Amino acid sequence: ATKIDKEACREAYNLVRDDATEVNWVTFKYNGSTIVPGDQGVDYETFKRKCTDDVRLFGFVRFTTGDAMSKRVKFALITWIGEDVSGLQRAKTGTDKTLVKEVVQNFAKEFVISDHKELDEDYIKNELKKAGGANYDAQTE
Fold first, then answer.
1. Does the pLDDT at position 139 exceed 60?
2. Mean pLDDT, range 28-45, rounded to an integer
3. Which label site among 30, 32, 55, 110 has the fewest CB atoms less than 10 Å from its CB?
4. Could you tell me one molecular function GO term of this UniProt entry (predicted)?
């Protein structure tokens, strides 16, 4: 059965939540049958490059959405399952996500993605915007 290194993962998660750090994303990856913190970084493009066809990982990502009147920080939980991941591993990823959610508890929206197009930053920001909060752009739409 899959396990999670809760302490290490919580530290990584808190880095993204902390306004005082520049870390905007972290990944949680498999080390054998244990989920551990993977990479972290500032640039979303770098995060996207971690999402290759042969891996499955969980990403916790900070996005700033909004307009001149109201900037909001929103968090997304992204489950990435690459196209070359086996059916069995795919199926397990869904149940393993519950372990990740014991650590990652605050996010506006969760995504399960296996198509690189859906990792597009604008697409995700748009979905987060729809997921809630006031939208002061409404007058112009």
1. no
2. 97
3. 32
4. actin filament binding
Cβ distance 27 to 16 under 8 Å?
A: no
Q: What is the CA radius of gyration of the chain?
A: 15
- Proportion of the chain above pLDDT 90, given as a percent: 84
In 3-state terms, what secondary structure has residue 133?
A: coil
| pLDDT class of 84 with cuts at 50, 70, 90 | very high
Helix (H, G, I), strand (E, B) or coil at 64: strand
Q: How far is CA 88 from CA 1, 93, 133, in A?
A: 13, 9, 37
Copy the structure tokens of residue 125. Answer: 């920001």
What is the average pLDDT score of the chain? 92
**Which H/E stretch holds residue 43?**
none
Element (H, E) at 141: none
Domains defined for the chain, CATH in brackets: 3-131 (3.40.20.10)
Burial of 72 (0-12, 13-18, 19+ CB in 10 A): middle
What's the maximum distance between 2 C-alpha atoms anywhere in the chain?
51
Cα 84 to Cα 55: distance, rounded to the nearest angstrom: 8
Structure token digits, residue 69: 């009147």
